[in-house]
């Protein structure tokens, strides 16, 4: 289970992350990432936008995750199973991400039949490619 401070809840947070953040697609996942700066919002590449345009941001806790699992993935039972697996993976990568990051993960239909280790590998690879994984976490996780 992903603790409360690590979840995206509001539609505006999802929209902001998907529209303004960086995106990378993998075979079974699409990962959107947006890193917030103190004086505005920064995309994963470090581009800033207007803080007034983004709204007032008050952050408590660490990185926040949002999941999108559409009906294309499967029926309700399959979608809930995929969402549970993705939440578990998010809990595993919390320590590797900066506290001011918002991550939205969109499950593609293949996520329903892909095993969890492969999904976790795709997620970590996407986060590395977006360059938001903290360097010290990468070194610590390698050994």
Layout of strands and helices, then pairs:
Elements: H1 11-20, E1 22-25, E2 29-37, E3 40-43, E4 48-49, H2 51-54, E5 64-69, H3 76-93, E6 101-107, H4 116-129, H5 135-142
Parallel strand pairs: 5-6
Antiparallel strand pairs: 1-2, 2-3, 2-6, 3-4
Protein model, in words:
- The protein has 5 helices and 6 strands; from the N terminus they run αββββαβαβαα.
- By secondary structure, it is of the alpha+beta class.
- Strands 1, 2, 3, 4, 5 and 6 form a 6-stranded mixed β-sheet that branches.
- Strand 3 and strand 4 (48-49) form a beta hairpin.
- The longest helix is centred in the middle third of the chain and has 18 residues, at 76-93.
- The model is unreliable at 48-56 (pLDDT under 50).
- Unreliable spans are 48-56
Report mean pLDDT, rounded to a whole number: 83
Strand content: 15-25%
Largest sheet: 6 strands, mixed
| Total helical segments | 5
Distance between the termini: 26 Å
- Strand tally, please? 6
* Radius of gyration (Å): 15 Å
| Estimated structural class | alpha+beta
Tell the overall outline: globular
Order of helices and strands: HEEEEHEHEHH
Can I get a quick summary?
By secondary structure, the chain is α+β, with helices and mostly antiparallel strands. The chain has helices at about 10-20, 50-55, 75-95, 115-130, 135-140, and strands at about 20-25, 30-35, 40-45, 50, 65-70, 100-105.
List keywords for this structure.
5 helices, alpha+beta, six-stranded mixed beta sheet, 6 strands, single chain
């Amino acid at each position: 289970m992903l603790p409360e401070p690590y979840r995206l809840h509001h539609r505006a947070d999802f929209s902001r992350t998907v529209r303004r953040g960086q995106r990378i697609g993998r075979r079974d996942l699409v990962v959107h990432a947006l890193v917030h700066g103190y004086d505005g919002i920064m995309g994963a590449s470090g581009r800033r936008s207007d803080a007034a345009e983004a709204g007032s941001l008050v952050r408590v806790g660490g990185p926040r995750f949002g999941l999108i699992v559409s009906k294309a993935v499967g029926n309700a039972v399959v979608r809930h199973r995929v969402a549970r697996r993705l939440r578990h993976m998010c809990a595993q990568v919390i320590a590797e991400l900066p506290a001011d990051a918002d991550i939205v993960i969109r499950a593609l239909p293949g996520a329903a039949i892909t095993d969890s280790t492969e999904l976790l590998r795709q997620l970590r690879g996407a986060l590395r490619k977006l360059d938001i994984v903290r360097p010290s976490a990468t070194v610590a996780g390698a050994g």
